Amino acid sequence: MSTNAPNPVPGDEESTSNFPFVGWLRDVAPYIHSFREKTFVIAFAGELVKEIGLENLIEDIAMLHAMGMRIVLVHGIRPQIEEQLKLRKIKSKFGTSALNTYRITDAAALECVKEAAGELRLDIEAAFSRGLPNTPMAGSRISVISGNFITAMPVGVVDGVDYVHTGLVRKVDSTSITLSLDSNKIVLLSPLGFSPTGQAFNLAYEDVAASTAAALKADKLIFLSPYSGLRDVDGELITELSLPQLQDYMTEHKDIQSGLKGLLNISGKAVRSGVSRVHFLPCNQDGALLEELFTHDGIGMMLASSDIENLREANQDDVGGILQLTMPLEEEGILAARGQDVIERDIQRFSVIEHDRVLFGCAALFPFPNGVGELACLAVDADVQGSGDGERLLKRIEMRAKQENIKKLFVLTTRTEHWFLKRGFKRATVDDLPEERKQIYNWDRKSMVLTKDL
Ligand SMILES: CC(C)(COP(=O)(O)OP(=O)(O)OC[C@H]1O[C@@H](n2cnc3c(N)ncnc32)[C@H](O)[C@@H]1OP(=O)(O)O)[C@@H](O)C(=O)NCCC(=O)NCCS
Question: Ligand 1: which residue has its CA nearest to atom 33?
Fold first, then answer.
């Protein structure tokens, strides 16, 4: 996958409408459906503000919020702190422990941290308050709430170095954050926390974001940072990996940059604490967030506890996704028409492939007497065809058939004969169909009949 090439407008080629956005909107609809009411913690590095500015990101987040996603936004401030230190002619000081590099935040540096955080927080609040003119969000009223949600503790003295006001997250007030999200607010968190004694601490925004995501058991934790992910032996970005794969990678590669290593460690911890997915996106690319969320391949790297692609039996929640896959093929005459109520009734006959909770393929098995079964409704999303999903679904159906003592599989197809022939099916005739199926054979469609002995 290329990380920098702009994607063509998805669906552009397939839609028969003259407006490219019609196809595009149809393509993103399953994502919108699956992300509704899900909790996303979106964290961005202070570098983003320097490199591409805040405005587009805030617009994108406002749009996600309008689509029904529950959003906690966390911002970093490292370059902004550097600026404040420079203004006051104070030298930056850092200390390195076995695990991390921390800023040493003395009293003077803490003032710079507060100044930097306050200024950026105000800029973000102002951007959300603009009513976003000239955008689809014009006139929208978005409430942003900040507060003392994070309890901090000092890093303390490590290897003889006192980190003074540099802290770690001790506790997240997830109840208050949840209440704010329930009342449709965007929660904004700065990398500052307070101890029960009222002291302020300079925190890493990665720590704030990961701890908050873990406390909320967020569906997604998204980092827009200078690190967009890990690379394979050919230098290609690894687009997805599971927690065990991350652990193997980190054991094999001792030379990972310390900033990225810290981010990966903290993300691994978040996934182990119940965060479903962590995404790593570049902070210097406008639109990276939308591209990651609304395209199959995304733009960055995604970490999950286990395999992200999932082949499983369908349930009632999948009816919408199956219709989305099959309806365009029914309209083209490739699949026989089946209404929503029929799919609902037969849902336990379907197997599906999902990727990050969005359906990309389906197939169904219908048993007939005398050990015969029909493979039907085999469909893979046009955007991901050719990557073996069709083959995996066929194998799954064959496995289910064997479990149900089905010895012979048949399929009716108008245009996919060769795909099945290559996979062990043989040409047959309508007379070879079970009597019950023969009676409802649609002579107008004139489907070819193929069979396979299992
Ligand atoms: C048929 C279908 C399910 C295959 O899904 P897929 O995920 O692309 O399948 P795979 O990745 O396992 O196989 C891809 C291979 O099949 C080939 N292929 C795809 N459609 C084909 C067709 N109609 N006829 C012959 N070969 C075909 C591809 O060229 C590719 O070949 P290659 O491996 O030599 O490059 C998918 O193309 C689809 O959904 N088609 C529309 C619906 C349909 O026809 N369903 C079957 C009717 S019951």
Answer: 386
Length of the chain: 454
For the chain, count helices (H), then strands (E). 15, 23
User: What does the pLDDT look like over 171-182, one tens digit per residue?
Assistant: 999 999 999 999
**Taking Cα atoms as reference points, which of 330, 304, 72, 340 lies closest to residue 188?**
72
Higher per-residue confidence, 2 vs 46: 46
> Which pLDDT tens digit goes with each residue over 221-243?
999 999 988 998 888 899 888 88
| Degrees to nearest 5, angle at CA 300 with 149 and 7 | 125
pLDDT for residue 338: 87
Helix, strand or coil, per DSSP, at residue 453: strand
Distance 376 CA to ligand 1 centre (A): 14
**CATH homologous superfamily of domain 36-307?**
Acetylglutamate kinase-like (3.40.1160.10)
pLDDT in tens, 381-399: 988 888 789 998 998 999 9
Using DSSP, state whether 51 is helix, strand or coil: helix
Predicted confidence at residue 5, as pLDDT, reads 33
pTM of the predicted structure, to 2 decimals: 0.70
Record the tokens describing residue 25, joined without a space.
């909107």
Nearest CA to ligand 1 atom 2: 390
Full DSSP string of 64-100: HHHTT-EEEEEE--HHHHHHHHHHTT----EEE-SS-
The best mutation among 385, 392, 418 to test binding of ligand 1, ranked by most ligand atoms within 8 Å of the C-beta, falls on 385
Report the separation in Å between the CA atom of 386 and the middle of ligand 1, taken as the mean of its atom positions: 7
In CATH terms, the superfamily for domain 311-453 is Gcn5-related N-acetyltransferase (GNAT) (3.40.630.30)
Element (H, E) at 343: helix 340-345
The answer to whether residues 260 and 303 touch, using CB atoms and an 8 Å cutoff, is no
Kindly state the percentage of the chain with pLDDT values over 70: 92
